[in-house]
Design a protein that fits this description.
With 99 residues, the chain is mainly alpha-helical. It has one domain. 68% of the residues lie in helices and 0% in strands. The relative contact order is 0.14.
Amino acid sequence: MSVSLIEMKQYLLVDGTHQDNVIQSLIDASEAELQGSGVRKMTEGDELYPLYKLAIQILVSRRFEDRGQVEKANVNLDYLLSKLAMNRGEDSETIQQTE
């Protein structure tokens, strides 16, 4: 895991455990979004790992803060649907092999 739940809660300034499931699902979705965009999963030894980690933190933060805002949620949903449609059901390994 590139960003732990504890790290993300510190980034979001969230105390307690009542939002843990939401935050963890946002971390997982953000990692999947990056991979769906062609960004390979990175670990601590990678040169660009700090940027990868920051990208996940920013994606999670935006989605966490935008909850309940219908207009922003619709824009985010349209964006995600177009990303998923571009992938056409292929997994990331299949996409990388065809490039």
